């Protein structure tokens, strides 16, 4: 795996070209262009806030609505990394299929194509940060040493997505049902992760059995989004069990994705 990582680094110019091409294609023939990266999360946050924060008068933000930032900041802090995750998942299945001609003609590590998908969505995620910073500026946020959770959250999510993309991109070439399954999986993962609601809502629910709460805590996505929220809400700091489980699952997914990709590479080339 280390040798492949080095090979990808040597071909970083190709990766850069792929990322820039994907970003250019996304915003071409668009009047607003980059502004769509800012409007989409704002629209989503506005809809969810209206439904859960206004219609249902929900006070589910950590510390209640009186906490710095409140529910709007909590929503946005979860929605932005979720859009990165969801976008990478959606494009993962097509990472190899859409580059079939390049894969069969260019002598480059095939891993760069799944890698470029994750990197492109990461760049789009970074482009949405001005929106979050404006919310922090006007609504407030408990910033301090907890901001150090941000690079860790980004790194873990990047590696987790890379493993998932390697796995799904290789499997989808041979089994096209994967692309349809991802659409369902994306929706399930969205509502089973602490994005619209803080984790304490699940952990304090009397109707939910203890074994389910333990399984929920060990969900790697729960740990990833808890780290993102901890940057602005220190009360959301992941537990030792949650953090350990997230790191272990990230390593397992990354290794499994890489091994699957390498094992199926010959069959993939024949299919493409």
UniProtKB/TrEMBL annotation:
Transmembrane spans: 31-51, 71-92, 112-141, 147-168, 188-205, 241-261
PROSITE patterns per UniProt: ABC_TM2
Matching InterPro entries: ABC2_TM, ABC2_TM_bact-type
One Pfam family in the UniProt entry: ABC2_membrane
Record's keyword terms, sorted: Cell inner membrane, Cell membrane, Membrane, Transmembrane, Transmembrane helix, Transport
Topology in membrane: Multi-pass membrane protein
ABC transmembrane type-2 domain span: 32-264
Localization terms from the record: Cell inner membrane; Cell membrane
Similarity comment: Belongs to the ABC-2 integral membrane protein family.
Name listed for the protein in its UniProt record: Transport permease protein
């Amino acid at each position: 795996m280390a040798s492949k990582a080095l090979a990808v680094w040597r071909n970083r110019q190709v990766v850069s070209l792929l990322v820039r091409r994907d970003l250019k294609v996304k915003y071409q023939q668009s009047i607003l262009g980059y502004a769509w990266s800012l409007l989409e999360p704002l629209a989503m946050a506005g809809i969810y806030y209206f439904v859960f924060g206004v219609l249902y008068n929900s006070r589910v933000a950590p510390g209640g609505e009186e906490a710095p930032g409140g529910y709007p900041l909590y929503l946005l802090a979860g929605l932005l990394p979720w859009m990165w995750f969801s976008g990478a998942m959606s494009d993962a299945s097509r990472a190899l299929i859409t580059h079939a001609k390049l894969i069969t003609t260019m002598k480059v590590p095939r891993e760069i194509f799944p890698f470029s998908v994750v990197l492109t969505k990461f760049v789009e995620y970074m482009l949405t940060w001005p929106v979050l910073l404006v919310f922090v500026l006007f609504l407030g946020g408990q910033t301090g040493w907890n901001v150090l959770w941000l690079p860790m959250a980004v790194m873990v999510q990047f590696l987790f997505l890379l493993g998932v993309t390697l796995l799904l991109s290789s499997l989808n070439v041979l089994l096209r049902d994967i692309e349809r399954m991802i659409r369902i999986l994306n929706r399930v993962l969205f509502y089973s992760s602490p994005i619209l609601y803080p984790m304490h809502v699940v952990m304090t629910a009397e109707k939910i059995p203890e074994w389910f709460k333990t399984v929920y805590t060990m969900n790697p996505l729960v740990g990833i989004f808890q780290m993102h929220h901890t940057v602005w809400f220190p009360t959301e700091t992941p537990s030792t069990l949650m953090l350990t489980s997230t790191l272990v699952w990230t390593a397992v997914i990354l290794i499994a994705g890489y091994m699957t990709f390498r094992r199926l590479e010959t069959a993939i080339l024949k299919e493409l």
